[in-house]
Amino acid sequence: MAQQDAIEQLKDRFAKPLEEFEQRRVVFWHDVDKSFESQFDVLAKEGVSSERNVRFLKLSDNNRFIAKRELYRLHAGDDFLVYTTEPKDFSPKALEKNWLADIEICSEHFQADFASLLAESLGAKNAAVEGVSIFRQFFNAADRRARFAKLMPRAETKADVALGVIGAILGASDLSLETIVRAYLVSLYEGAEPLDQLSKYGADSLFASLVSKRVGYAGDLLSRDDFAAHVLLTALSTQLPGEYLEGLEDRISNPHGQPCFNVVRAWMGDEKSLAVLFELARDTERLCGLPKRFAEIPFAQLQAADVFPCINECILTGLLGSMAQGADRSDEALRVTQRRKDLKWFTRVEPFFSALEASANMQRFYREHVQGFHVAVARDVWNAYTGDWYMMDSWYRAFCVAFDRCGKSSFDVADNVIDELESLAAWVEGVYVNWFLSETNRCWVNAAEEQWSKSGYIEGVPRQRRFFDELVMAGPKEVKRTLVIISDALRFEVADELAHRLERATAGTAELKSMHSVFPSITEFGMAALLPHHSMGLREADMAVFLDGDVPVASTEEREVALRRRKPKGRCIQSKALLAEKRSARKQLVGDADVVYVYHNKIDAVGEGFNTEHMVFDACETAIEDLVALVKSSINDLTISRVLITADHGFLYTRNPLEERSKVSVADASTRVVKQGRRYLVGDEPSIDDGLFVKMNMDDIDGGTYTGLAPRECVRIKKAGPGDNYVHGGLSLQECCVPVIEFRNRRSGAKGFEERQRAGFKLLSTSRRITSMLFHVELFQTEAVGGKTLPAEYEITLLDASGNAVSDTRPAHADMTTSNETARVSRVQLGLKAGRQYDSKKPYYLSCRSKDDGVEAWRQEFSIEIAFVPMDDFGF
How far apart are CA 305 and CA 730, in angstroms? Predict the structure, then answer.
């Protein structure tokens, strides 16, 4: 094959036309091994196809003068193929003895040995020929040659050839140190025998030299555990001070910390083999007893380290456990959680950190209100709840949702993390139920009880019964159509999250308000109160609610009749129908209605079911997604510019079963009960004040026929059957504080339009000199996330002047909502790529690029001043 290739290459050369200033072609064929001598003789006898006359000369020690005469005198205008067994050598000493030196220097040269031919076919330079010869056996197969050529298209040295051969044998995707080490360890993990393959083609000692010099490992290459432990622990040494790694010195090579760190970081970015890295890290954790070691290291030292998954678990165990015991670690927990988001392995334990974050926010709130809730005026209590107290409901929901996700997680998590999380869940339940719900609602009842008993409402707080007149009818004149979405049991804190989602998902604005529900805060009364009316009545026979004496409102059709008494073009529609229809059908469904009531029921439908009430917080998330979709569909397909989103009532929900002391009996009410639930009673007789119930004036229902009673604070009324955890109907802030979101669609350029923008980063680091292979930069999140400022994820990397990455790429999350600017500073660690030289006189650029669309937000110029960077060296 090689011989045939040589003949064909020579024929091709002589068949080519001469260049513009060439008069003939003279080619010196160097065949040092005399492998092609017989082929030359055959070729000289048969000749070659050419437009010019081609002559053949075979040089020997005795015919140099004759050959010179042939070339210079007798046939000076003909092409020549000159065959010689001497190597090409233009050294001064060799030139002195070479009679043909002058013409040989000016002529073309051709080497016909196997290595030279192969090197030429591979695009390798002459300096790499010897390397090709060393690995002749490897290059015997076409598939191996193809793999090599793909990895190393232009080999310039013997070392290039060696590196290409090693990469091809290991099946590496490129020839970086990071990829080669990863490929070798993955092969070991998968049960292959990569060292045997390297040895088969004579590359084992060169690979051993590579890993010894570049990552500092000189141990047994057949030991997967030892090799992996060396790489991982040496990488960790760049993230932790040496004092915390005492006893592991035999497995760590400090001078090679940065190359090993680069190996690990690059591996973390390879999703195909990430699971292998995780398992190798787990093996090293067990081999070296790392969880116990890390448990004794201060979090301040651990919070930026991410080589081993168990670091997350050690941080979680410590924080979850101490917080469960009542220790105030809220600030530390929030800071560490934010830092860990940008590090590897976070997604595997994200639900646990989400639970930690929610509980930390609850703990911070507890610390800020540890003196209790002492507000005397009911309106002020209401404003305090809608100001920030409601966030405890939101954080409790977030904790419960995260807790459930932890239980469903498929990732391998240490048992002690789960144990401490369960302990913290007990603390969260106690703080939320026994402190927050109890104390805030005691404050609320004490402040509002007199007004409830006297007038049935709170002075200065908007009332649900005035919703239609004060909100629906109060829209701007330019608004031709108003959409009213009523989501059953949409609690105030859920509506707050919905408002933020709408701000982020649309070009419109979402303003959150509140109003006090009717009593009892149940669907029958709440849905009726939201419709236009003058009076409300209750028919005792079937407990049906009527408006204005005789207008029933139980069904969607009946509610449309009630709406059309004030708005003849009004429509009432179920959200399922509106979401399910196509755009044309939705338009037809709404028609020319100027007011459209849309009824949505996700939260209450789940909460009311005994088998599903534990899923009510998941239903809150589903409801938010539904309502965002409804709003977007309305503004896009129905050209509606104003949307009101509200609810008939809120709800109380706690996870743990209630104790009997948290319940009261109907008999304690001392009245004939007409209608009852777990959080309310409606009677038709005056009630004796026994201190167990709060009285609610119901004079506006059938002219004062009935008396309303609600258990104090969050106490439930004993009732046969299940359903104590999810309840509504009473007067707690969570039940009677009904949200109202006024959404206005804003078109670009219109009054009130505000462009959505991602939160961004600004580089804080003042030094622009990089003096070590590992370096840090500090970033400041310029805006707090909220409103039209959206969370964003960026990628930080260092580039050369041509835009090529010279460091690893690190994520940076701009998602902090705090107004505290100091708290919005984050630190990113980067590592320069090894195996290359950095020029201190050339510029480099730190680039911040959006992960979503790849758009570069900014770049800042840096210089790199590093005296020495290790290069590949195989010891040739």
Answer: 50
Residue 751 has pLDDT above 70, yes or no: no
610 or 197, higher pLDDT: 197
Tell me, what's the pLDDT at 1?
42
409 and 476: one domain? no
Q: Are residues 591 and 620 part of one domain?
A: yes
CA 258 to CA 252: how far, in whole Å? 12
Exposure class string for 564-596: b at 16+ Cβ within 10 A, else e: beebeebbbbebeebeebeeeebeeebeebebb
Same domain, residue pair 482 and 407: no
Last residue of a domain, one of 412, 438, 461: 461
Whether residues 431 and 562 share a domain: the answer is: no
Between CA 381 and CA 389 the distance in angstroms is 9
Q: Which CATH number do you get for residue 801?
A: 2.60.40.2550
Which amino acid appears at position 2 of this protein? A
Domain that holds residue 406: 309-461
Lowest-confidence region among 103-117, 285-299, 781-795: 103-117
pLDDT of residue 409: 79
Residue at which a domain ends, from 686, 717, 744: 744
Counted residue by residue, the chain has a size of: 876
Phi-psi region of 208 (alpha: psi -120 to 50; beta: other; left: phi over 0): alpha
Q: Is residue 731 part of a domain?
A: no
Say whether both 502 and 648 belong to one domain: yes
In whole angstroms, what is the distance from residue 117 CA to residue 112 CA? Answer: 6
Pairwise CA distance, residues 486 & 646, whole Å: 5
DSSP class of 685: S
Answer yes or no: is pLDDT of 244 > 70: yes
| pLDDT value of residue 749 | 58
This prediction has a pTM of 0.84
Torsion of CA 275, 276, 278, 280, to 10 degrees: 170
Token pair in block for residue 702: 């059938």
Residue 539 lies in a domain: yes
Instruction: Please check whether residues 455 and 473 belong to one and the same domain.
Output: no
Domain count, the chain: 4
Q: Is 414 helix (H, G, I), strand (E, B) or coil?
A: coil
| Omega before 520 within 30 of 0, i.e. cis | yes
Instruction: Determine the average pLDDT of the residues in 82-108.
Output: 78
Q: 459: how many CB neighbours lie within 10 A of its CB?
A: 10
Whether residue 531 is found in the same domain as residue 625? yes
Strand (E) or helix (H) holding 371: none
Query: For tokens 């290595």, what's the residue?
Result: 115
492: left (phi over 0), alpha (psi -120 to 50) or beta: alpha
User: Is 845 part of any domain?
Assistant: yes
Give the containing element (helix H, strand E) for 748.
none
